[in-house]
Design brief:
By secondary structure, the chain is of the alpha/beta class. The chain has two domains: 2-18 and 27-111 and 216-306 and 316-325, D-Maltodextrin-Binding Protein, domain 2 (3-Layer(aba) Sandwich), CATH 3.40.190.10; 115-211, D-Maltodextrin-Binding Protein, domain 2. It has helices at residues 2-19, 45-52, 55-58, 71-79, 90-97, 143-155, 169-177, 191-199, 224-229, 231-250, 252-263, 270-282, 299-312, 322-325; strands spanning 30-35, 61-66, 85-89, 103-108, 115-119, 135-138, 163-166, 184-187, 204-207, 218-223. The strands form three sheets. It has a five-stranded mixed beta sheet with strand order 2-1-3-10-4, sandwiched between helices. Helix 6 (143-155) packs across helix 13, helix 10 (231-250) packs across helix 11 and helix 11 (252-263) crosses helix 12 (270-282). The two termini are 31 Å apart.
Length: 333
């Protein structure tokens, strides 16, 4: 099977090379920073493949990938163009857009939510209503926190009874492992493999999607200002990311290799990163986009997300429309 994977990867690489635009000899590369939602994890592999394999460079882009402090913060740094691109959550984007922020997802990466409640198997917290009166951490700006009130309302949790500590996502995970908080709010695609490796246990999951809370998740975000000022840069960045994503899908081991090479000291084991990437590949398409090309998003998926946030999470009715939040125009045709 190894030779088959190698052949597939080689074919993808040849296709990448064939599609590359021509640039003037010695033309300076566009310097861009890409801001992650939180710490580096497996779903970020396409961006790292793009950097390590030189795909962005072939598209005349010098990209640097940086960790983030929650999707809302990442979207704000992209909107003010402190960072040119971000990897951030759709629900956080909708909330900020309702307040006047102007940025869009220009490529979908994770189109099904993996937001989950995690509890220890011996905690006795097995259903949403078991969480009433319990303690967790709330990380301002975190994608999971943006959607938790919707989950609480849909699942019959008394949100006002939850005792919350204000922490960043990494501190919340540590407090959970130390059993200083009763439950964790986290992305199964990111934290689940890490936490299970650390606790050497199988955590109990309450997936928000199982309760009808399924909103557009993470994608590549660019500001409306950058889109208007330099659409060619956005188009090249998206094309390079799509190519890198195809390579990582065709050869997951290669993607994990590039992740380990780029992060060097992320603290994640290879097996954790591999599991994260495997989970990410399961949620790259919604039911509406499962037959579409990599990165293509559905307007109806965005409208459904807006409707859920309006009904359950306090998004002002009529404040956001799908075209304010996404575009497929920069994806390769």
């Amino acid at each position: 099977m190894a030779w088959v994977k190698g052949l597939v990867t080689s074919c993808v690489l040849l296709a990448v090379g064939a599609a590359l635009p021509a640039f003037a000899q010695g033309a300076p590369k566009d310097q861009v920073t890409v801001r992650a939602d939180v710490f580096f994890y497996g779903a970020h592999i396409p961006i790292m493949v793009g950097i390590v394999d030189g795909i962005y460079a072939k598209h005349n882009i010098d990209a640097k990938f940086l960790v983030g402090r929650g999707s809302a913060t990442t979207i704000q740094t992209v909107a003010n163009q402190s960072d040119q691109f971000g990897f951030a959550d759709g629900a956080a984007l909708a909330r900020l857009a309702s307040k006047g922020l102007r940025a869009k997802q220009v490529m979908g990466v994770l189109q099904k939510t993996s937001n989950s409640i995690m509890t220890f198997p011996d905690s006795g917290l097995n259903t949403p209503k078991d969480l009433n009166g319990k303690t967790t951490g709330f990380a301002p700006g975190s994608a999971t926190d943006q959607i938790f009130p919707a989950f609480a309302k849909r699942a019959g949790i008394d949100f006002s009874s939850i005792k919350g500590l204000s922490v960043d996502p990494a501190t919340r995970d540590n407090l959970f492992l130390l059993k200083k908080i009763d439950f964790n709010i986290a992305l199964a695609v990111a934290q689940l493999p890490i936490l299970q490796e650390k606790c050497q246990c199988k955590l109990h999951l309450m997936r928000m999607a199982d309760y009808g809370i399924n909103v557009m998740s993470n994608g590549i975000v660019a500001s409306d200002g950058l889109i208007e000022k330099n659409p060619d840069l956005v188009r090249r960045f998206v094309a390079a990311t799509v190519e890198a994503m195809k390579i990582a899908i065709a050869d997951p081991g290669h993607g994990v290799d590039d992740f380990m090479a780029y992060t060097n000291s992320s603290g994640l084991s290879r097996s954790v990163v591999a599991e994260q990437w495997d989970e990410a590949m399961k949620v790259m398409h919604s039911k509406r986009t499962e037959n579409e090309a990599v990165g293509v998003m559905s307007e109806q998926d965005w409208q459904d997300s807006i409707d859920i946030l309006t009904e359950y999470a306090g998004l002002p009715a009529g404040s956001v429309k799908p075209q304010m939040l996404f575009t497929n125009q920069f994806l390769p045709r």
